[in-house]
Amino acid sequence: MTTAKTETLPQTSPTTGKSEQWMEKAKAHLLQNYKQQPLVLERGLGSRVWDADGREYLDLLGGIATCALGHCHPEVVVAVRAQLEKLWHVSNVFYSEPQIDLAARLTAASGLQRAFFCNSGAEANEALIKLARKVQKDRGHADRYEIITFQNSFHGRTLATVTATGQTKYQKGFEPLPAGFTHVPYGDLDAVRKAVNPHTAAILVEPIQGEGGVRVAPVGFLKGLRALCDEQGLLLLVDEIQTGMGRTGKMFAYQHDDIRPDGISLAKSLGNGLPIGAMLCTEEAGKSLVAGTHGSTFGGNLITATAANVVVRKVTEPQMLKDVAQKGEYFLSRLRELQARMPTVVKEVRGRGLLIGVELFQDSAAFIAKCREFGLLCNAAGEKTIRFAPAYVVSHDEIDQGVRILERALKA
Fold first, then answer.
1. How are the residues of the chain apportioned to helix, strand and coil, as percentages rounded to the nearest 5?
2. For 96-127, how does the pLDDT look when each residue is reduced to its tens digit (9 = 90+)?
3. Nearest by Cα to 10 from 365, 369, 338
4. Is 349 within 8 Å of 335 (Cβ atoms)?
């Protein structure tokens, strides 16, 4: 893919003003629940997007770790277009081939045996929460319903998943919150052990806290959680919504620690931008969700499952995972070189694969805005951390360009 030679990508076009018109219409009609960047994006290809005025941007956010294969990947486009001409939706009252194929691919890649499909990450985590409670009740432990989660975690926006989330800013105003969740410091195995009580059913953890500032779990932490769950008869549930589908250089981030969870949640990169989520679990756990216990009207429909099949097929190619790991190391190295040049501005660079956070010594909002002005798209993960989650097809030249724009923004 051709890389632009200038770090100042946006150019005024004859249609200047179109974006402003759309944003005024949005302010008049959309619920104002998002703090949106002032862009109206109209088209994309690979790691590039164009706004309604024709300005070009280097997208190193990828729909927040969602467009794994890049915008408008030709194989996804061809597959989805062909399915659109055949059949879109039949509900889960009937079987469909794309969904069955997807379940087979995901279970083979994960080492888990059962798949449930929904529409989003929050729904996938809801399925994990219900799974944990139902399994414990089926084991004869009706009093085990609490789930241990972690401070600075993020698990979704439904009432249950926002309560599972360990950040009070997302919960404020929605009290009283549902009972059944305990938050402990991330990475502190002793704190987890102390939090276990006769009501504990499961532990829900992110291998990397995305919204919490791109914080990677300490070495041995996930293995320690697995051992604790085995010892106490708890389920280990892993939120792979941002980290799954190859984002960290392995198909699933828990595979870096050589463990097998009882259940995982997926979304984001699974559909390369089309809305699909999944909950995968072991055969034993899956026995608890019998007919009628859970469901989704649109989950795993033919269109989204078709897109996801292309994603899984492409990502499970060994070279793709190697490329993600290598590009991630390259991106981290370039950012750490930048940190060395600007030690009073950049506090820390961290991440794994192509999920990377650059923590600053001050609020990141102004710098993100300046990046956008210079033609680079990224966003915040926490108040002081800039998050990058580019497509796996991003080139080294595009990474270099992104770092140059970031440096220019930090200096500005």
1. 40, 20, 40
2. 999 999 999 999 999 999 999 999 999 999 99
3. 369
4. yes
